[in-house]
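tl;dr need the bound structure. longer version: we got a ligand (calcium ion) that a collaborator sent over and nobodys looked at where it sits. i said id run it. heres the input, straight from their email, havent touched it
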Amino acid sequence: AKKESGSSYSFFDKQMAMNSVSKLEMGNHLRQSMDRNELEIVYQPQIDCQLGKVIGVEALLRWNHTTKGYISPSEFIPIAEEMGFIVAIGEWVMRGACQQMKDWHNMLQEPLTVSVNLSVKQLNDERFVDKVIQILEETGLEAKYLEIEITENVAMRDDQLEALGRLRKLGIAISVDDFGTHYSSLSYLKRFPVTKIKLDQSFVRGVQTDDKDRAMIKAIISVAKSFQLQIIAEGVETEEQARFLVANGCSQIQGYYFFQPMSADQTQVTLQMSMQS
Ligand code: C2E
Ligand code: CA
Ligand code: CA
Ligand code: CA
């Protein structure tokens, strides 16, 4: 049992109270953010270095709060999950990203993919799979051009895995995000209907400085090969990192070295240029 002085207790309580007030406040603003047009989807291109071109984009959510300015998804997604808005927000992102990609297909005639981040909480919504089917029908995007990125940070229940299995059967690709950062990484490959591994940026960061990160990257690439999965590295910021990855068999790359996440308009210009070259 911990024995704390009265003052540290009250400090602790105050902190807790403040945290929950600002969380509630943020939650309430978040509830209105969709109606107020404060949410925006930005896109980060994914490159195949062997082919030398953009092969897809990841959709990333942005919240431009009227008074607080830009709020990071790492900050508001957990609140949206806790308060249950993630279901509505996630559906909004999915529809927007699919519609956008269908427009780009029509415009560019290129088989680009769009990756959408999924919170495991969205799989608790029993209508989730039907909603995805509906979105694909509404937008006209073929299932094979949609990829769902899921982080293996919580133990998934059987019904959640079953929903992922149904999505995979539709032809949707399923990518394990932040691969290698959670203890269950390997066993998930057995249980998941996975098509791709996303090599976490924490390993990429150590390419020039850390033997262990380099060993991790090589090990994860060989896991991908053994399981016949695609692999993409994220958070690639330097030429050295890109060279190391390609030399070791990971040719799909995403990161600031090539492109930052961009507005839909900017992404469109980038895609047009990439397809011309
Ligand atoms: P994530 O899915 O792992 O996304 C990668 C994050 O790394 C993104 O941050 C991206 O902007 C950033 N990034 C990309 N390239 C580089 C690079 O070269 N260097 C560095 N340092 N960072 C890079 P972002 O956009 O702030 O998103 C943070 C997290 O929020 C995401 O991590 C994802 O877990 C979550 N998120 C974003 N959008 C959504 C969404 O629509 N739904 C859900 N459920 N989660 C989302
Ligand atoms: Ca992701
Ligand atoms: Ca990631
Ligand atoms: Ca992450």
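gonna send this back to them w/ a short note. Confidence is low (pLDDT under 50) at residues 1-6.
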